[in-house]
Amino acid sequence: MKKITHYILYILIACTALLNIQCSGNGKEKTPLPELVHAESVMFDHPDSALHILKAMPMPSARWDKENHALWCLLNTQAKVKQLMKISSDSLVRIAYDYYKPTNNARRKAMSALYMGDINYDLGYIEEAMQYYLEGKTEVEKTDDYKTGYLIMSSLTNLYLFRDFADYALEACMKAYDYAVKDSNSRYQMTSLGLLSRCYCISNEFPKAIETYQKTAAKAVELGFENDEYYYSIQKEIALVYTNSWKFEKSLEILKALPKMYQPSLLIGTNYLMLNQYDSAYLYLNKDLNTDNVYTKKSIYKALYQLGDTPEYRKYLKTYCDSLLFYTDSVMSLDKGKEIIAYKEKYDHQKLITEQQRLKLEKADAQRMLFIITICLIVVIAVVAYFYQKRLVRKEITIRKQSEQLQDFMLQLHEYETRLMQNNRYMDELQEQISRQEVNAEDIDSYREQIDSLQSENSRLSENIATLQNHIAEYTSKLDKARRDTEKFRSISEENLNLKQRERMLADYVVDNDSLVKELREKSRVLDDMEWETLEQMCESAYGNFVSRMQSICPTFTRQELHLCILIKLRFSNTQMSDIFGVSVSSVSQKKFRLKKHLSDSLEGGLPEDMTLDRWVAEF
């Protein structure tokens, strides 16, 4: 039984270690070449200089130096994308993508997925681009590379916006803005606010859209773009929101304040039409008829058709109607194809999300199964140890009883032997007196009767002594065997103690390799409710109902005190606890002091003076 338990322990530890090795990627990375490090350091501010450095250096060997070759391909692609160069194929960045995908370098995987998505999007492969962006989104969440996170989420936002996926676009845009704030990049914040405004527009949340556009304009002025085309485009979009909100005069006020070259004639004409200023509407609407955009022409002729319903412009009504029908048919033909593509993309996107959720569930099931196996093994060890201890106690009781019985037999044997010796001596004296004829003839019969009685008693004593000697021999044999069994069970008890120590090491090993615990040990942060619940369940499973036992000995525990006990049990330092609670290190010390006092008040006899809180919780 002991060997089987050992084998199970060793197999479980080996499987856990193998699982950890498989999940940890390809191991330690090499140090990049100095030229690559220099190029990457200037990439965001001077991509042209970065590209010049990359072209000037010898290309790393694709056979002997695969890591530096992959990084060279990735940085080349990054520099070209940042300079808006035309890239006809994803073959270069695919080398980096294929190299980094099986590794544990989340930052490089996210970057290569981003540029794979950008290139495929420019080439018109929208479905493939969306898949790469979503892969990059998953990987960048494991890093603190906020620039790459912003670029991935803003690219996803644009993809969703142009396909009217309002909910997806809003979620992606909020994440992009969050990355921009974390990166303290004002330009990224301005751009993400502009995208967020458009998300509110397509969701018909016009008050939020106007408010967010105004924040975007304020950020543009802060960056010195008040006379830039981007600033004027923001103003035009604000005016469009006011038009859609039926605030035509406010919209005209904003549009008229723009320089002439940036004033949109269609929107101004539409506002005049809605305000019944037909001559001005006719003048501005006709200005935009020279465009080649069928969507714009459709909108113009739709407005002109409404204008033709007035008496002075009714003579143009037939012309406007024919043109409107023509461009409406053209737009419907284009939209029909786009609608089919959009539905297909939405289906593929949902399919990809479902697949990712399935993979996460499978991973969670595997971890749960590992925990269940560990708990079952702990229970088996505990049961075996219990029965071994119980049997050992029973054996010790048997030995004690047999020892006491043996002592009783020895005392009786000594008593019988003493009486036998006394009887023999008395018989010898009587025989000697008879032989010397010191007694009268009348007393001889009496002496002989006494001698016969003593002989009879000696016979009985001899029988009793023989019986006792047999009992003593039997008990001595049993006692020796019991003592040997006791030594054996004591050895087993020591083995059980070793198993318990290994059990604790295994529980600590499983806990330390949990993804959330590893993440917190590497970079502590404030946890949400679901993550606290995960830590509670982990301590409950790995440490024998730790949370329930803590609550049972002190039902007045607050949630924060319970969370503090969990972090102490998981062996986090005071500094890590301060980051997780979002307080100072001195505040953590005060929390521990109050918790120890609370425990001392709740426990009978309180905590020993020489017992620290950390030691008590660790041994609980």
Question: What would your notes on this structure say?
Answer:
The chain has 620 residues and is an all-alpha fold. Among the domains are: 356-512, Helix Hairpins; 523-619, no CATH class. The chain is 79% helix and 0% strand. Helix 8 runs antiparallel to helix 9 (166-182) and helix 14 packs antiparallel against helix 15 (278-287). The two termini are 28 Å apart. Mean pLDDT is 76; it is low at 1-7 and 17-27.
Name the CATH architecture of one domain.
Answer: Orthogonal Bundle
Mean pLDDT: 76
SS element count, helices: 25
Radius of gyration: 46 Å
Straight-line distance between termini: 28 Å
**How many E-type strands?**
0
Give the CATH level 1 class of one domain. Answer: Mainly Alpha
Write the layout of secondary structure elements.
Elements lengths: L1 H22 L10 H8 L5 H10 L9 H17 L8 H10 L5 H17 L3 H15 L5 H16 L4 H17 L3 H17 L3 H17 L6 H16 L3 H9 L8 H10 L3 H10 L6 H14 L9 H119 L5 H72 L2 H8 L6 H14 L3 H8 L5 H11 L4 H8 L3 H18 L10 H7 L1
Helix pairs in contact: 1-17, 1-18, 2-3, 3-4, 4-5, 4-6, 5-6, 6-7, 6-8, 7-8, 7-17, 8-9, 8-10, 9-10, 10-11, 11-12, 12-13, 13-14, 14-15, 14-16, 15-16, 16-17, 17-18, 23-24
Briefly summarize what is shown.
79% of the residues lie in helices and 0% in strands.
